[in-house]
Design a protein that fits this description.
The protein is an alpha+beta fold and 751 residues long. It has five domains: 5-149, no CATH class; 173-330, Sulfite Reductase Hemoprotein, domain 1; 350-427, Alpha-Beta Plaits (2-Layer Sandwich), CATH 3.30.70; 437-620, Sulfite Reductase Hemoprotein, domain 1; 622-751, Up-down Bundle (Four Helix Bundle (Hemerythrin (Met), subunit A)), CATH 1.20.120. It has a five-stranded antiparallel beta sheet with strand order 1-2-5-4-13. It starts with a helix and ends in a 7-residue tail after the last helix.
């Protein structure tokens, strides 16, 4: 029987940091007030989110244990508002791990919590966090207290706050780094946690650190504030600092961070971050959440004006002793090996040799390597966490970190211990090879647990791992080291924009039925801290995505030029040819009785909106909406081609027209004789679909309609390369929203 919140509070009294203990007490009081109907649900939602507690998806109102979710009453007699509330079904608890750093005792605490409160599985995220699913909200104070006793917090793991500060997991061991960024990432994390100047942000704020510019381990270009280690020499003395970037972010429309300064001295790191947060809090959007990230503020102001405001803010800050104290404290950090340096194993063979080739990385310290513990789908069981803790104690000074690719790394492994380490990992089910290769696929939770999931990202990832694992790319290293990343929706939690092969979930209606699809995103670059973002190419039924991967990888292996990476190959071959290679995979099934395409990976149920009927005789019944949406997809593809050729004005105009075409297609379902006048189309769309909220996605609201309205305002141009690209991304999302809207409608009259 689980101990109660009160029992854990008593048992752990004095073992938790005082500030964390007090915060958990406050949250428990807020929970009680909410149950009594004395705290508004909207306010409580932000309260729980700031402590890392999310609602979770349950298809058809089913709990994970198969029982039906029922309405339940608060003690006050107030009813919950239907199923899937935080009170009648378990949710998800996110746990902050700054820089991904953990010790053995913390791994064991996570194991106990996963076993006692969750489904026995902990999930590593793309921001080095942990997530435990199926957590009952009544249990969260106990979970938080046990974490706090292990010096782990969930504070600001979600919500409009400073999220986990991520850092390169190889920092301090990488031969290519400028210096070890670990102490600086820890100082920033400690400084910004709960800081008064970060409590009024309009949206989340994500920092990251990288020790070099050439690798992807820190992904500085994807973040609101990204720091890359740099040095400067003056009068013969070398000083440390950072190349600082601001305003990056993926999400629905990805923005690459802009260079703020080529060199920020280390002593200015914390005050400058504080000043940036203050400017964002003061000037960032608060009402329209779709425009509330810092990337939009930087874009709207321009990097020079943004920098002026930040430096002005910095000059006005009162001196804070923590600026130096935190850095001095953090710089005492030092890692050392447990065991003596060793030599590489002699004549390894079989599975061990493959594992050595893919899951080990030489340290700059002679005789040591970093070992990657690959986690399929980012999942690890409670018993595996305990085994990992034992291995860390036996072979290292508990130098364990999570990675942004949802794995673990064990640092400071002596080369002479590699056989023993592999044997121990293999015994725990953690010895799988392929870390950092094409089978090491990154994926978000997707439709398994996320309320925003459209297609099964985890199901697809599992299938791709299986199929790719059956093939051997060892003779072609270029293919072996491609990156596949999958998101269940457009929000890029799986980081599909910076993959060689990226996919995000969408839905299409085929023969009157909803069919799970994925947009294929090509042209992204993982290296150079997420050096460039890919663009959507076409939507393909989910069940055909493995064939997409097969065709593109085989074509690359066969036709690539010497030294040509995948991004450059995609650019050379060209999107029209790539579309031609995949075009048949996007078509409806030739056999209308074949229902296999209408279910998603890992889900036996048919992915359908209901029985809407199918066409008869020679062909399908096709509505004007479908024709119009198809034309819109063609136009946005043409906009993309124009942008890639540097035809910026043409690209911007084509993207805007693609949105108009999609809006007109929907309007025609109500008003078939609508003219081609843009003002009339948008007026009718606003009246019939926006004002009535028919266009509103259940989770995104009217967010994507605003892309159309904004595009109309700026339709006179001129367009820049950046603004045209953003408009292309927004056009894709508007068209996807139009498809989603159409899927929720009855089938209109055919033509």
């Amino acid at each position: 029987m689980k101990a109660s919140n009160a029992q854990w509070a008593k048992e752990l009294s004095g073992k938790m940091p005082e500030d964390l203990s007090r915060e958990i007490d406050i949250f428990e009081t807020e929970m009680a007030l909410r149950k009594q109907g004395k705290l508004d649900e909207r306010l409580f939602a932000e309260t729980r989110l700031r402590r890392g507690i999310y609602g979770q998806r349950y298809d058809n109102g089913q709990r994970h244990d198969g029982k039906k979710v029922q309405e339940v009453a608060y003690p006050s007699g107030e009813l919950t508002k239907g199923p899937n509330t935080m009170w009648d079904a378990p949710g998800m608890q996110r746990i902050k791990i700054p820089g991904g750093g953990l010790n053995a005792a913390q791994l064991e605490t996570l194991a106990d919590l996963a076993e006692e409160y969750s489904d026995g599985i902990a999930h590593v995220t793309t921001r080095q966090d942990f997530q435990l699913h199926y957590i009952h909200i009544e249990d969260t104070p106990s979970v938080m207290r046990r974490l706090a006793a292990a010096k782990i917090t969930t504070r600001e793991a979600c919500g409009n706050s400073v999220r986990n500060v991520t850092a390169c997991p190889y920092a301090g061991t990488c031969a290519d780094e400028v210096f070890d960024v670990t102490p600086y990432s820890r100082a920033l994390s400690k400084f910004l946690l709960g800081h008064p100047d970060t409590q009024n942000l309009g949206r989340k704020f994500k920092p990251a650190f990288s020790g070099c510019s050439q690798h992807a381990c820190g992904l500085a270009s994807l973040h609101d504030i990204g720091m890359i280690a740099a040095t400067q020499t003056k009068n013969g003395e070398e000083t440390r600092g950072f190349e600082m970037y601001v305003g990056g972010g993926l999400g629905a429309v990805p923005y690459q961070a802009k260079l703020f300064d080529t060199f920020v001295p280390q002593e200015e790191l914390l005050p400058l971050a504080q000043a940036i947060a203050r400017v964002f809090a003061r000037l960032g959007e608060k009402k329209n959440r779709s425009r509330a990230r810092m990337k939009f503020l930087v874009q709207d102001l321009g990097i020079e004006r943004f920098k002026e405001l930040v430096l002005e803010e910095r000059r006005g800050l009162a001196p804070d002793p923590r600026w130096t104290a935190y850095l001095e404290s953090a710089q005492q950090f030092e890692e050392a090996p447990l065991r003596a340096a060793g030599e590489w194993p002699q004549s390894p063979s079989g599975a061990f040799a493959r594992w050595l080739a893919t899951n080990t990385r030489p340290q700059k310290q002679e005789g040591y390597v970093v070992v990657t513990v690959a986690l399929p789908l980012g999942d690890i069981t409670a018993n595996q966490l305990r085994s990992l803790a034992d291995i860390a104690r036996q072979f290292t000074r508990e130098t364990v970190r999570t990675t942004v690719e949802q794995n673990f790394v064990l640092r400071w492994i002596s080369k002479s211990d590699l056989q023993q380490v592999y044997t121990a990992l293999e015994a725990a089910g953690l010895g799988e090879a392929g870390g950092g290769t094409i089978i090491d696929i990154v994926t978000c939770p997707g439709t398994d647990t996320c309320k925003l999931g459209i297609s099964s990202s985890r199901g697809l990832a599992a299938e791709l791992r299986k199929r790719l694992g059956e093939k051997s790319f060892e003779l072609n290293e270029s293919v072996d080291h491609l990156h596949i990343k999958i998101s269940g929706c457009f929000n890029s939690c799986g980081q599909h924009h910076v993959a060689d092969l990226g996919f995000y979930g969408v839905s299409r209606k085929v023969a009157g039925y909803a069919m799970p699809h994925f947009q294929v995103v090509l042209g992204g670059e993982w290296e150079h801290n997420g050096g460039s973002y890919g663009l959507p190419t076409m939507a393909i039924p989910s069940k055909n995505i493995p064939e997409v991967v097969t065709r593109l990888t085989e074509r690359y292996a066969r036709d690539r030029q010497a030294g040509e990476n995948f991004k450059d190959f995609i650019k050379r071959v060209g999107k029209p040819e790539l579309k031609n290679i995949l075009d048949d995979l996007a078509r409806p099934p030739a056999d209308p009785t074949d229902r296999s395409l209408f279910s998603d990976w890992g889900d036996p149920r048919e992915y359908s909106l209901g029985d809407m009927g199918t066409g008869e005789c020679a062909g399908e019944v096709v509505s004007p909406v479908e024709f119009g949406l198809g034309a819109a997809e063609r136009e946005v593809f043409e906009a993309q081609l124009a942008w890639e050729k540097g035809q910026v004005e043409q690209a911007g105009k084509a993207a805007y027209h693609a949105m108009l075409q999609a809006a007109k297609a929907l309007v025609m379902s109500d008003y078939p004789l609508i003219s081609d006048d843009p003002d009339r189309i948008i007026s009718e769309f606003r009246t019939r679909f926006y004002d009535t909220q028919k266009f509103f996605d259940p989770f995104a609201g009217g967010k994507f309609a605003h892309y159309l309205f904004a595009a109309q305002e700026h339709s006179g141009g001129p367009y820049t390369s950046d603004s045209a690209r953003y408009l292309i991304e927004e056009a894709h999302l508007f068209i996807e929203a139009a498809h989603s809207c159409y899927n929720r409608m009855g089938t209109p009259a055919a033509v």
